[in-house]
Specification:
The chain is mostly helical. It has three domains: 18-207, Up-down Bundle (Growth Hormone, Chain: A); 213-341 and 369-399, Up-down Bundle (Growth Hormone, Chain: A), CATH 1.20.1250; 401-489, no CATH class. The chain is 81% helix and 0% strand. The longest helix has 32 residues, at 53-84. It is globular. The two termini are 40 Å apart.
């Protein structure tokens, strides 16, 4: 590689999304978001704006339960199914959109019956499945992992713009018809999205990765830190939505101000899809996540000192911006640092944690009924403490970064060795397995006598004709690397 090639400029969205079919996701994402916007608009009613604060609280609690319920199904059941589905994650997107098209049509004629709740639940579950499937599919469509933030940002931007257009269309429909027609138009968008999903290149789901490799990647310090940071942002968002909303409604502010604050948060989220790639050119994903926590902490402090509609709008905009930027960085961390994980199950588990964080933040605001200044002061302190913890943790990680890299390498080498053995290349598999054990010994967690034994047995097996000798060497190397990884993790 020449110096000129190495110093090439950071790629533009257009060139990156042409990489291995990532561009084919754009129309699917747009149609999915349009259908979701119309579905949400069709269900908007007397949940909040048309009743008193006290009457709204039990309805909001029911809404939070309904929001959380799909993840009880998603994490333990749907995640593994996504990873085993014939046709890969592309088939997940197609089935999710197709199912929602059918159920939305059924729901259009049953909005005023008890079937509303189970059918709406099916649509919500299918939408979460789509999100998991899309996030799982993106890494297989992007050749260069450094481009993931750009791709994720462009997808989010496309979805946000499509959602805004769909809401405007929905308002026009409501001026001449009822909510059932919103669902019919939404079903059309879902169906078109399912057809568009057929154009996405197929992906091959890796199912032979040793469990210890997947477990080590998903429980690595980078992913754990990113999950905690993103969960903090989600919890703050849930808290602010209801804390600020109740505060403004109690003070007698008109409904359009509350709606304007929600719209400002959406605008901030849209802006974040442009800012995230710009930040990624200058900072690492973990640094971007930390900055995403600091920004709303500062605005929450200002709102706590002087709370009125303008500071509430600024806080909502900062949370929308920070949440969008943080999500792009979070997705990039997971897609980069866990390449061997069964992505359907992994993302289902992560989405569940993030949704739980959002619900917890919302429940605190709904149940605690804290004074305005106190709630925002607690929010400031929480986000500030989390930001400081991430800064100190990043400094500590930098000091031990070489050890962490040396810990991951043996696992990946061992995965390669087992793949070679499955193909019948026993000699190459033994050599790679021996390299994995020697790499584990660099960290100092493999007994020297056991490494010497492995080296001797591998030499005997390479020049011997007995296949059982090769299997024994691979088994011994696997045990050494697994034990080394477990000791290092402890």
């Amino acid at each position: 590689m020449t110096v000129k090639e190495f110093d090439r400029p950071y790629p533009a969205d257009r060139s990156v999304l042409g990489d291995r079919g990532a561009r084919s996701l754009l129309p699917v994402q747009a149609l999915h978001s349009a259908g979701e916007a119309l579905f949400a608009l069709s269900l908007v009613g007397s949940l909040f704006f048309n009743v008193s604060v006290d009457a709204a609280r039990p309805r909001i609690l029911f809404y939070l339960v309904l929001t959380m319920a799909p993840f009880a199904v998603l994490a333990p059941l749907i995640g593994p199914v996504i990873d085993r589905l014939r046709g890969g994650h592309r088939a997940v997107l197609l089935l999710s959109l197709g199912l929602r098209a059918v159920v939305a049509l059924l729901l259009a004629s049953q909005l005023k019956t008890l079937l509303l709740y189970p059918e709406a639940f099916v649509i919500v579950v299918a939408a979460k499945v789509y999100v998991v499937g899309r996030n799982s599919l993106v890494p297989s469509l992007v050749g260069d992992r450094d481009h993931l933030v750009v791709v994720n940002s462009r997808l989010a931007r496309t979805g946000a713009a499509s959602g805004v257009v769909a809401v405007l269309l929905g308002l026009a429909v409501l001026s001449v018809a009822d909510a059932s027609w919103l669902l019919r138009v939404g079903a059309m968008f879902y169906a078109l999205g399912a057809i568009s999903a057929l154009r996405i290149p197929g992906d091959q789901i890796e199912t032979k990765t040793p469990p210890i490799v997947e477990s080590t990647e998903m429980h690595g310090p980078g992913i754990q830190s990113a999950t905690i940071g993103m969960a903090g942002l989600r919890m703050a968002t849930g808290f602010v939505i209801f804390h600020v909303g109740f505060a403004l409604k109690t003070s007698g502010q008109p409904a359009w101000i509350v709606a304007g604050i929600a719209a400002t948060g959406a605008v901030g989220g849209f802006a974040g899809t442009f800012v995230a790639p710009w930040l990624h050119r200058r900072w690492h994903e973990q640094q971007v996540l930390t900055a995403s926590l600091i920004l709303p902490a500062v605005l929450a402090a200002l709102a706590a000192l002087r709370f009125h509609s303008s500071t509430a709008i600024a806080l909502a905009a900062s949370l929308g911006l920070a949440g969008s930027i943080g999500r792009r960085a979070f997705d990039s961390v997971i897609q980069t640092e866990a390449p061997h994980a069964r992505r359907g199950r992994a993302y289902a588990g992560l989405e569940t944690r993030l949704e739980i964080a959002w619900v917890i933040g919302s429940l605190v605001a709904v149940l605690a009924r804290l004074p305005n200044w106190l709630g925002l002061a607690i929010l400031t302190a929480s986000l500030g403490a989390l930001s400081l913890n991430r800064i100190f943790a990043a400094a500590a990680a930098a000091r031990v970064g070489t050890v962490a890299g040396a810990t991951t390498l043996p696992l990946r080498l061992m995965a390669t060795a087992e793949t070679l053995a499955a193909r019948g290349d026993r000699q190459q598999a033994m050599l790679v397995a021996l390299s994995a054990a020697e790499a584990a010994a660099v960290v100092g967690t493999v007994a020297p006598e056991r490494l010497v034994e492995l080296q001797q047995r591998s030499r005997d097996a390479v020049f011997g004709d007995d296949p059982s000798d090769a299997k024994a060497v691979l088994r011994l190397a696997h045990n050494l690397v697994a034990e080394s990884s477990e000791r290092t993790a402890r």
